[in-house]
Amino acid sequence: MSDGKKSKISSSRRLGLKIRLLAVATQMLQEEKEQQKKEREAVLAERLPPLNLAALSLQELQDLCKELHHKIDVVDEERYDVGLKVSKNDKEIENMKLKITEIHSKFKKPQLKRVKISAEAMLSVLLGSKHKESFDFKANLKTVKKEEEKKEDVTDWRKNVEAMSGMEGRKKLFDASAN
């Protein structure tokens, strides 16, 4: 309406229509409340007939009281059962709502922090009081043997120098590097 087009109904007419609609709506609400009140009275009159206590004897009054107490007990049991069903249904509804939010991935997962904890501390947390002995996890690991470097037995260094001197020594060095 603000982009150049004018409404076909003037503001005073629109206000008058709103007032009339509200008046009709309030009248309908009042009629509905009265109807509900009449229905309630009709149901109560059907369930509870009017009491004429003046014409009853003492024994009849006692019997009437016992009968009313019995009816009250039955109604209380029904009310309790209905209350349990309602609470059970409410819990079910809540659980289903949680499942729906998890399915839609709207549930934000918290970022987990890395915690440095020893193996023994973790076992004590997981097992509780059952964890009394300490486990040596490193003992269960396979051992890997490193190849030891071959050490040449160096005897007298003078003999080694004499053997390496000349053409034969250089030939030995060349043959050793080629392998």
Describe this protein with a few key phrases:
179 residues; elongated
Tally of helical segments: 5
End-to-end separation: 95 Å
Largest sheet: none
Arithmetic mean of pLDDT: 80
Overall outline = elongated
What fraction strand? under 5%
Total DSSP E strands: 0
Helix content: 55-70%
What structural class is derived from the secondary structure elements? Answer: mainly alpha
- Ranges with pLDDT <50 over ≥5 residues? none
Structure explained in plain terms:
With 179 residues, the chain is mainly alpha-helical. It contains five helices and no strands. The relative contact order is 0.02. It is elongated. The chain starts with 10 loop residues before the first helix and ends with a helix. Helices cover 63% and strands 0% of the residues. The longest helix has 46 residues, at 58-103.
List the topology elements.
Blueprint: H1 11-47, H2 58-103, H3 119-127, H4 157-164, H5 166-178
Summarize the structure.
This protein has 179 residues and is an all-alpha fold.
